[in-house]
Amino acid sequence: MECNVQQRFLPSFSRLIPLLATAAVLAACGGSDSPDLQNPGAAWPPMPTVTGHRGASALRPEHTLAAYQKAIEDGADVVEPDLVSTKDGVLVARHENEISGTTNVATLSQFAARKTTKTIDGVAVTGWFTEDFTLAELKTLRARERIPANRPANVSYNDQFEIPTLQEVIDLVRREGEVRGKVIGIYPETKHPTYFKSIGLPMERRLVDTLLANGYRGKQAAVFIQSFETANLKELRTMTDMRLVQLIDSPANAPYDFVAAKTGRTYADLITPAGLKEIAAYADVVSPYKEIIIPRTAANELGTPTSFVADAHAAGLKVHTWTLRPENPFLPLSLRAAPVTSPSQRGNAVAEILAYLNAGIDGFFTDDPAVGRAAVNAFVKK
0.85 cut: is pTM over it? Predict the structure, then answer.
């Protein structure tokens, strides 16, 4: 018997008695209770790395346990929970703290009075906000598809799934890793960290403490912590050696901590060779918007790759790009499926991903990990 726990072996046997099956296989291999699926070491992650963006959000409402489960089933190496805070300080998975577009909160009369307008990162936003709800109250809500015009099939899942906590995502990842004998990473993003700190709900220490309490340890951990801001990543670096990721938005935009500090700097300053060296002083990975790597032409086709990947690698950074989606509106014109004006028609997303892999990226975020896995398989076989 080979002493490696292979995915093709475990699922069929472990459906009957998951934990016993896993333990038995590991015992035969001379292991203890379980492999260290949370701290796999420097050889992890496999590259190119496939990250399920908000789970398999092209196939299930985003940031639900069902979406993360589907992402794992479809071959994601990592799943990505965006994190916001509840009123009682619990980290939960939502793309934004304003939740009218991703839950049924607007339909519930008992929460009608909670609708309000707030300034989030300098922008007035009206709706319902996680920080005005306790976890118990949020658990009475149900998730809904955020972009139904692009993903009408996901509407059939509306009002079926709860808002998960970070702990519930970790529990799912651990359970699936044990069943499959496979390392499954997590890629949490701290959303609006300057804002949450300003209202007395800072996320950094709670995130690190939760990861530590669940056995994740330093750079050996199957974790990437990401942020569009810079100050909180620098603060996180003082708390942990886990992999940190600087997200990069369009060059004309700016990290909100730059805006709040009135630095006058933008993301354009961070994507230069000097800016990338600055990032490398506190982060391990840089994750730019995809058009920073391959710009679109005037005809909405993929253009010539920039020097970004080479510059980032020269600075010692890995490169993970976002977000590669399968529906027509997100694809270059020639990769769209007929009718090209259909917002929900799925085009040739594999070809787009392959273009980025050929440009030298180390990993990517995708809303459909099955498509991402197909692209990686094609790339490594060529």
Answer: yes
